[in-house]
Amino acid sequence: xxxxxxxxxxxxxxxxxxxxxxxxxxxxxxxxxxxxxxxxxxxxxxxxxxxxxxxxxxxxxxxxxxxxxxxxxxxxxxxxxxxxxxxxxxxxxxxxxxxxxxxxxxxxxxxxxxxxxxxxxxxxxxxxxxxxxxxxxxxxxxxxxxxxxxxxxxxxxxxxxxxxxxxxxxxxxxxxxxxxxxxxxxxxxxxxxxxxxxxxxxxxxxxxxxxxxxxxxxxxxxxxxxxxxxxxxxxxxxxxxxxxxxxxxxxxxxxxxxxxxxxxxxxxxxxxxxxxxxxxxxxxxxxxxxxxxxxxxxxxxxxxxxxxxxxxxxxxxxxxxxxxxxxxxxxxxxxxxxxxx
Length: 341
Prior knowledge:
Blueprint: E1 6-8, H1 10-47, H2 59-84, H3 88-139, H4 152-163, H5 190-197, H6 250-272, H7 276-288, E2 300-302, H8 309-340
Antiparallel strand pairs: 1-2
Helix pairs in contact: 1-2, 1-6, 1-7, 2-3, 3-6, 3-7
């Protein structure tokens, strides 16, 4: 007995074909969006590769571009199949292509599921890459005259301004590194000299942050130097007053941005894995089982599987076993020849 069989008349077949046609062309539009989103995501990763130590993975955007192109091609062909299915002459020409096409669609849906999993799992890799990359970016902020790091300062400043963040975890990360180059330090000044000599590693550390950490929405002019020194500023207490710099760390801010993109990708891919293959199977079987193909008014039966679910599964397992035994026999037959040589 067929699995999930349904009765169809002419009106139901026409509605099914029209509905599938619309669904396939909607999937083509989604494919274009996926392709565009893949290019956008790749550009965004490239744009901030410096703060990710150039270790960012482009697996997801590359797969997304591939899936977008495949989706457009497969679904456009599926739309043509549905459009031509109600014409007996055109359907007879298209019929040999149905089975390979549906197998191809099943493989494509498996690729979509893999990409959905990657969209969520790769977020952990992005988080770890950002944590290490931002840590190194802050450390190399001052190296504007070092080859390979010339634009690190600009990249990090633009990141803090764009994402309204400061430091890796928070603004205190800047207190732990020397972010002003020795080129701009007056070593003849006793204050500067004492600060450098008082540090074990000979670094010029201070409780200050770069200008890009300033919050322009604060009513008070930005206090970016001597943040923990209450006496250095009038009517100021760093423990109670809300500082006029960004409190959120850039790791959290940038990760939220990338995870938002990847979650959107996952949701869009889940929407793409629609029941178009099942609908096409119903339509093709409903057209094949028409008692009189020349009479479009006659009723027919459509199904998802020709046999029951258990019978289909048993047949599939038996085919796999037969294929495995055939391989063993071929290997056994080949071994005497190998010994003879």
